[in-house]
Design goal:
Low-confidence stretches: none
Strand order of the largest sheet: 2-5-8-13-16-18-19
Shape: globular
Strand content: 25-35%
Oligomer: single chain
Number of helices: 4
């Protein structure tokens, strides 16, 4: 059975991102993000629920940008400061009590290293998982396929290219564990 590009995307396989169904879904998300970013704070919760497909108590400062919305799962008490970008071609799971500083990018999307398939429009996506009680500092970039363990702090400007364990402070480019955090 031949998979559609959307099914390939969700299965973590190479897919063509310019597929009409995916283009239409990204346009819908763009329109909803635009509305979210323009609405007064007391109204944008409704738009966020429409974008995500469920209600949430998360507080995401505008502007917010994402590819699809329906691949984002937010835990309780999530706060994101200005300019959060989530390329949610694969699932992005954010735990409870997560704090996200300004200008953070969570990117599940990637492209082949080989030139020919990349310029032909092939893309892949790998899930991102952020555990409970995590703090992502300003300007953090989280790359496809990364898991960040519970209770971890990622320092400002870090580029997270591989999994980071629970209960640590990690910083740098590429992001590396600096020290453990005392359990509270």
């Amino acid at each position: 059975m031949l998979l559609t590009p959307k099914q390939q995307m969700l299965a973590g396989e190479l897919y063509l991102a310019n597929d009409p169904e995916l283009v239409a879904e990204r346009l819908r998300a763009k329109q909803l993000c635009h509305r979210y970013n323009q609405e007064p704070v007391h109204l944008n919760k409704q738009v966020l629920a429409e974008l995500l497909g469920y209600e949430t108590d998360a507080h995401l400062e505008a502007p917010l940008r994402c590819d699809y919305g329906y691949n984002i799962r937010l835990g309780r008490n999530v706060y994101a400061n200005y300019n959060l970008t989530i390329l949610d071609c694969a699932p992005v799971t954010i735990g409870d009590n997560v704090f996200i500083a300004p200008n953070v990018v969570l990117s599940t999307a990637g492209h082949p290293v080989e030139v020919a398939p990349r310029i032909a429009g092939w893309e892949f996506a790998k899930p991102i998982t952020i555990g409970n009680n995590v703090w992502l500092g300003a300007g953090v970039l989280v790359m496809p396929g990364v898991t960040i363990g519970a209770g971890t702090t990622i320092g400002a400007g870090s580029v997270v290219t591989r999994d980071i364990p629970a209960g640590v402070v990690a910083v740098g480019n590429p992001c590396r564990v600096l020290r453990e955090v005392a359990a509270s």
